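In response to the reviewer comment on reproducibility (Comment 2.3), we provide here a single inverse folding case reported in full, input and output, so that an independent group could reproduce the run without further information from us. The structure tokens appear first.
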């Protein structure tokens, strides 16, 4: 994409955000600390200025250092940051439900959707616009979403202004405007606001074990408490135990990391 075309894309996106955002009394840009949400927040502020507030959902199991980065960016952008604290304890839920899997992804419901719904219900859902950094090429499910819709569960309107942006366009925007990307990308490849085992490979947790051993030990300890003696990860039809990763993390670094839904290649 040429510089001229890229600027046209940016200007068109800002114009669209301004048009849609002007129809709502309260506008919140969901900010997870990742690249997509960073660009979305920056675009939203350019379009709507002081009308926008940032919204971070603290799952209780985000990568150490992520919350501090989110807070620092909010301060840097001079935007009010709303933090939805964890209402459910992931470790206690695993003991009751077992580790979440692709087919039993209860973590999203309890760690993100339910706390967000409670927060929205304390306000007026009809007056709220949630701006998200969802992009179509992240997964086959997100590719089927609509740019502007009334969320069935949250009962409020959600809007994804960069839905059809590519990953390269997101990176180019960050570079073009010299935005401070989350430093966790250098270590993990993503910011990871949630370390549930869904969409994680043994390499992801091996990287965590090497860089944040105290945090990783919580998952090893949790796995050992399961009555079923089940494993924390199920990868390519094979059980992978956190306790084994803890012994020698380097042996697991050669597994591909899962930055996108592993079902995409089989369902597209």
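Designed residues, in position order:
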């Amino acid at each position: 994409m040429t510089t001229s075309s890229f600027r046209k894309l940016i200007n068109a996106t800002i114009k669209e955000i301004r048009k849609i955002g002007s129809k709502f009394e309260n506008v919140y840009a969901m900010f997870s600390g990742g690249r997509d949400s960073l660009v979305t927040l920056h675009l939203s502020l350019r379009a709507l200025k002081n009308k926008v507030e940032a919204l971070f959902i603290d799952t209780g199991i985000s990568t150490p250092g992520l919350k501090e980065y989110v807070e620092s960016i909010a301060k840097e952008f001079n935007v009010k940051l709303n933090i939805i604290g964890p209402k459910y304890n992931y470790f206690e839920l695993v003991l009751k439900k077992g580790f979440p899997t692709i087919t039993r992804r209860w973590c999203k419901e309890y760690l993100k959707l339910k706390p967000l719904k409670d927060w929205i219900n304390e306000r007026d859902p009809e007056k709220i616009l949630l701006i998200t950094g969802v992009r179509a090429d992240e997964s086959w499910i997100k590719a089927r979403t609509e740019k502007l819709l009334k969320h069935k569960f949250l009962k409020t309107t959600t809007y994804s202004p960069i839905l059809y942006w590519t990953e390269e366009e997101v990176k180019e925007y960050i570079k073009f405007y010299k935005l401070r990307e989350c430093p966790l990308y250098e270590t993990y490849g993503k910011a990871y606001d949630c370390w549930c085992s869904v969409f994680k490979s043994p390499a992801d947790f091996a990287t965590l074990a090497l860089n944040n051993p105290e945090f990783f030990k919580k998952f090893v300890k949790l796995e050992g408490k399961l009555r079923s003696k089940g494993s924390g990860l199920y990868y390519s039809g094979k059980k992978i135990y956190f306790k084994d990763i803890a012994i020698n993390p380097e042996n697991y670094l050669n597994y591909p990391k899962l930055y996108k839904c592993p079902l995409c290649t089989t369902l597209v």
